[in-house]
């Protein structure tokens, strides 16, 4: 909780700081990487730096956390940070790195605000930062402990061998992985992801997150969509590397499972909504339900370009068939049939179960549209959860920010 003095200062300066946050975060990353270029080797995603998504996500997170502190002082806004904490543990973020971030972030604040960065203003926002950092550090410590990562060896990374490689579509590949050291497979909650870190041709290591589409006691499977990378837009450099080079017997550096968009226990109906490669966490959920002989009511909703472009299509159909109370509705922009609907996802003629938990994954415009349809159909905002691949640039009003 903010002190009364700091709360008043933050409330008064939040509009001004919010207007400058994009410039502040841009300078923060620029100065930090100029001084500490090694942070781009295996820790920060340089594709998100190139396209500006990381700084926009950081600015949004800071603004949302500060707003919650001053607007709802009786509540702890830690839930806002759950998604960030999970991403951090998948990358091995450590407590000391928050000190490094503080140095460059507050240097950027002083530079961008100029004379407006008075000692009182800086002190108030310093309190916000350490409340936010402290909450993240505490959450991350619990996640590390849950995954068996100890204080002495605080690394989420292990070596995993590729045991199977399978093409799902022209641009989607599944890799089955087994721990190279013979150690047990860590618990993977349905819908979670792992980070894969690989060395790129220029010598820099980069990590990306991929949903676990299936797991058991001996192996996990990740499903990777290839994105074509360019010098100006390196977003697909890791996926392209995996598609091109990852073969059976190769060993990859893989993190502990992370992610907080996982179905709750109980028997509430599930509605799983996806588009394109967003199907992968949903397939992970379906596999877990089928392997557990679940009798839970499940409605699967998926949109794609065509049956040929639909990743894991046959497996998904088989999983729905294994669940006694599951059904699916699929939309294809091309190639609609009597079994599938034509065009974009339209829920106006789809009967939704009563009081469902909804989990979504796909492009942000798609999820915004479907969420609006769900709200109109009477599904409460608190019951709609979403996973986003990459920095979270969408915090919809009334939606749980931590619902990754």
UniProtKB/TrEMBL annotation:
<keyword id="KW-0813">Transport</keyword>
<feature type="domain" description="FAD-binding FR-type">
    <location>
        <begin position="155"/>
        <end position="264"/>
    </location>
</feature>
<dbReference type="InterPro" id="IPR009050">
    <property type="entry name" value="Globin-like_sf"/>
</dbReference>
<dbReference type="InterPro" id="IPR000971">
    <property type="entry name" value="Globin"/>
</dbReference>
<protein>
    <recommendedName>
        <fullName>nitric oxide dioxygenase</fullName>
        <ecNumber>1.14.12.17</ecNumber>
    </recommendedName>
</protein>
<dbReference type="InterPro" id="IPR017938">
    <property type="entry name" value="Riboflavin_synthase-like_b-brl"/>
</dbReference>
<keyword id="KW-0349">Heme</keyword>
<keyword id="KW-0408">Iron</keyword>
<comment type="similarity">
    <text>Belongs to the globin family.</text>
</comment>
<keyword id="KW-0411">Iron-sulfur</keyword>
<dbReference type="Pfam" id="PF00042">
    <property type="entry name" value="Globin"/>
</dbReference>
<dbReference type="InterPro" id="IPR017927">
    <property type="entry name" value="FAD-bd_FR_type"/>
</dbReference>
<dbReference type="Pfam" id="PF00175">
    <property type="entry name" value="NAD_binding_1"/>
</dbReference>
<dbReference type="Pfam" id="PF00970">
    <property type="entry name" value="FAD_binding_6"/>
</dbReference>
<keyword id="KW-0561">Oxygen transport</keyword>
<dbReference type="InterPro" id="IPR039261">
    <property type="entry name" value="FNR_nucleotide-bd"/>
</dbReference>
<comment type="similarity">
    <text>In the C-terminal section; belongs to the flavoprotein pyridine nucleotide cytochrome reductase family.</text>
</comment>
<keyword id="KW-0479">Metal-binding</keyword>
<feature type="domain" description="Globin">
    <location>
        <begin position="1"/>
        <end position="141"/>
    </location>
</feature>
<dbReference type="InterPro" id="IPR012292">
    <property type="entry name" value="Globin/Proto"/>
</dbReference>
<keyword id="KW-0001">2Fe-2S</keyword>
<keyword id="KW-0521">NADP</keyword>
<dbReference type="InterPro" id="IPR008333">
    <property type="entry name" value="Cbr1-like_FAD-bd_dom"/>
</dbReference>
<keyword id="KW-0520">NAD</keyword>
<dbReference type="InterPro" id="IPR001433">
    <property type="entry name" value="OxRdtase_FAD/NAD-bd"/>
</dbReference>
